[in-house]
Amino acid sequence: MLNDIFIAFFNIQMAVLFFANIYVETVMLSNLASVEDLSGSAGEYLSAVVVVLLFSFLPIRSIRCSDNHTHDTGLLKRHIKRPSPRCWILLSAIILETVLLLVTNVAYSPFGNYLILLRQEYHIYQIHQQVASDSSDNNSENAADTFYSSDLTDYKEKDSSLAETPNIILIFTEGLSQNIIDDEREIMPNIAAFEEESLNFTGYYNHTFATYRGLIGQLYSGYQMDNLDENNLISLQSILNDQGYHTVFINTEPNNEDFSDYLASMGFDELIGETTDALSGNANTYSDKEAYELLWNEAEKLSSTEKPYFLVIYTFGTHASLDSPDEVFGDGSDAELNKFYNADYQFGVFFDKFKQSDLAQDTILFFTADHATYQDSKFTSAFPDYERISSQLDGIPLAIYYQGIEAENISVDGRNSLCLAPTILDFLDISAPNYFLGSSLFADSSENVSFDTIFYCEIRPISTLNGTISSLSESDEAWSDENLRLYFTAKLSSPSESYLESVSTLVVRTTTNLSSNGQQLEIIYTPDESETYTHYWFPVWSTEDGQDDLVWYKAKKQRNGSWHIKISLSEHTLHGELNIHVYGGNSDVEECLDVTSSILP
After folding, report:
1. C-alpha span between 528 and 146 (Å, rounded)
2. Which range has the top average pLDDT, 222-226, 277-281, 336-340?
3. Among 533, 523, 546, 512, which Cα is nearest to 591's?
């Protein structure tokens, strides 16, 4: 029985390797709840399950694991079964391989892979425990301070031909790597032509995998600890909503309850997608043809209203294992090529109508993917000459189109999809407080490792700095682990609206401290361009009883160049007026730069 169990573990890895081109991964286990999305190969997968069970547990007499020996006690002859040498050899070989792989850390072995899975699961468990501990210690708001920025730096001047508040359509295509668009066989000619007419970002990678992490990660410019954990920080759609936009997400999987709840947690004004059994897409979803028709109809309807809109869609038809229900590539013999060709065809129909309609006059079209195409055996068979280092990480498309745009290719040197939200806002000249981990792609690329060049998905982080996929150094990995833990803790905080309201030139914001019964006040100072000080201090005291509660706070520098601090109001009188001064200096206090006050509630 012990050997049967070992053989079953071995056969499971062989079956996964056959279909996925890689051994079992943590992401496979975390996405088991969405196994129906792989329905395109359901027959093959069920057959594999039967074969695994059959070859693992079916008794076979020709392979003996015991020898019969007779023991004469004088009165009775007893038949004793002892393990044969062959049985011990098999078991010993498996144990020896496992020990050697534990020492050498080699991944390319079925049993060595199980050890790596256990390490990854333990690492994830440690992160969960630490985040839970930080949250119970009321540190979520303190963690949020690490990532808070009062505004977005403007790197791209808004095109004068754009409307003041143009409509926005954002298309996420399921699992699309850039190499498929670039393929010489012209599998996706319409999207390739679209990129040639657009601001097209090259050397751009996905920051995580798969859909549940990719969509929310791009809209919030952050990572996920688990597939379905919510993000309580600031999103692209919430910022646009504050700017007067009506925000809508088209749900192409309305019959998937988990996915629908997931989208509902993101705070869009409206979710579109009818729950019905009449959908023609695989796994009871909208086909790409139906999805683009719904996108067109919704865009036309929203354009007849007075408010600008932010309309987002995720198309499902290119999911792993699926075939096209409509258009096919060539003779239609390759399902992998069919689904991408069909997605491109349906996009082409939509884009042609878009360019010829009034929508194009005041609407910006963003096209990208939720993540890279998964490199399973079907992908490898369809693209045999395309080499990849990672099955989950690859270059993905991002292009921006509007009427009259001057087409341009912009190399971003390995930066990733954490940059989508800040890039869209920069393109629109919209600035707002945020907790984004990425930055605008219109900014110059940095030579330093930062999150916008780090892929993370329940595994050791991978660098895409300078467009090269590689492991992080030990110090960079330690930095990544620490800040990921802080970010996951920060996501548990809930900034209130008052926290985001500007009060004066010296931006003072007030919020309820959710971790205690007191209040906090954030002070942010933006230096003049002529200032060269390396340190700033904020002396704060209440008008009541003189300066008996005076506290000098040393400010912290933010990524955008401003300086801030969050103070606890328990240090000061909890009513009346607070005096706030700003001093600059290098090693010591040198000059008073600003004077303001804040009326406490």
Report:
1. 23
2. 336-340
3. 533
Q: Could you tell me how far CA 413 lies from the centroid of its own chain?
A: 19
The reply to whether omega before 210 is within 30° of 0 (cis) is yes
Distances (CA, A) of 64 to 3, 53, 84, 96, 479: 12, 19, 7, 21, 54
Between the alpha carbon of residue 11 and those of residues 16, 23, 51, 54, 314, the distances in Å are 9, 11, 9, 10, 35
**Higher-scoring residue by pLDDT: 475, 42:** 475
- If you search the block for the tokens 């059994």, which residue do you land on? 277
pLDDT digits (tens, 9 = 90+) for 293-314: 999 999 999 999 989 999 999 9
Q: Are strands 167-173 and 309-315 parallel, antiparallel or unpaired?
A: parallel
Tokens 């549940």 belong to residue: 212
Residue with tokens 């990129």: 195
Tokens encoding 484: 């990921």
**Residue 595 to residue 582: CA distance in whole angstroms:** 6
Q: How far apart are the first and last CA of the chain?
A: 71
DSSP strands (E only) in 355-447: 363-369, 398-401, 408-411
> Under DSSP, is residue 234 helix (H, G, I), strand (E, B) or coil?
coil
How many whole angstroms separate alpha carbon 239 and alpha carbon 152? Answer: 12
Q: With CA atoms as reference, report the closest residue to 574 among 595, 593, 601.
A: 601
Q: In what order do the strands lie in the sheet with 363-369?
A: 270-272, 246-250, 309-315, 167-173, 363-369, 398-401, 199-202, 408-411
CA angle 248, 313, 444 (to 5 degrees): 100
Three-class secondary structure of residue 413 per DSSP: coil
- The b/e string for 149-159 (b: 16+ C-beta within 10 A; e otherwise) is bbbbeeebeee
pLDDT digits (tens, 9 = 90+) for 543-560: 777 777 888 888 877 666
* CA distance linking residue 347 with residue 339, whole number of Å: 12
Residues counted in the chain: 601
The verdict on pTM exceeding 0.85 is: no
| Backbone region of residue 467 per phi and psi (left: phi > 0; alpha: psi in -120 to 50; beta: other values) | left
Cross-strand bridge partners of residue 364: 168
Residue type at 264 in one-letter notation: A
Instruction: Specify whether the CB–CB gap between 538 and 582 falls below 8 A.
Output: yes
